[in-house]
Amino acid sequence: MKDWQKIRLARTDLTDYVIHFTKCRSGFDGRWLERGTEFRRAEEVFGEIIADGFIRPTFAPIKSMTVGTTANTVRGPDPAVCLTEQPLSAVIATRRCTGGRYSGFGIAYHKYALFQRGGRPVLYGSTSMLGRKLGPDEPGYQDSKDIYTEGLPTDLQYLCVQYKPTVGDWDRYPIDFTWEREWRYKCNGVGLPVYLEGYEGIYGEMPVGALVVERDEHIEQLGAALAAKAAQGIAWASKLTKIVSLETVERMLAAGDERYARIETYPE
Questions:
Q1: How large is the average pLDDT for residues 9-32?
Q2: Which domain holds residue 96?
């Protein structure tokens, strides 16, 4: 057995999968007319993704809790799909600590398949590496986008995530999201397909992707939705067969079964 294989078996904090977790959608963002203007729960957004067959890219805007303004967290001219490299065990721990930051509904991809399609780990660092933000009268400026010059090339700016740690100072809030182990997939088209074709048998029987649901009861519901799509002739719906329940993960990890810590070892 090679060293990398030993490390993968010994360290359950490592995983070969990344997961995009859905979030609540609070309103209309102007990009996709078919989505409407009403509030959508994370589970409903997940249902939309399964129905569409794609995850739509965004600029991941967030609203400041102190100032009240909204800013893009994905910089550059290209929207992206954000994913996390945390294994299932870490997702459970994170959800306990952060409340609603991660929903229980997600789409997982084997890193090999996503990397071949252009998915990459983000670059954690100072925003100074971006350079200078373009103004409205400068060439390359695009309204509602944060595009920079004299720093990172524009085609890499979507990967920049601000990192500003503190040293033992609990009175100051650090800007440190390295715990998310974030990946991003850049696309200007319709989005990231739910299932990536052409990567079957990456490592033997290891699946190209998987679906994550919050509770055991969701497995049957999702299975029925996939079966209906497969009956309509949608090929990927019959290939995406691994469904992971976070309720089962939490229960089995509490019982000491470490197979449930990662998608690659999660029992069928």
A1: 80
A2: 3-265
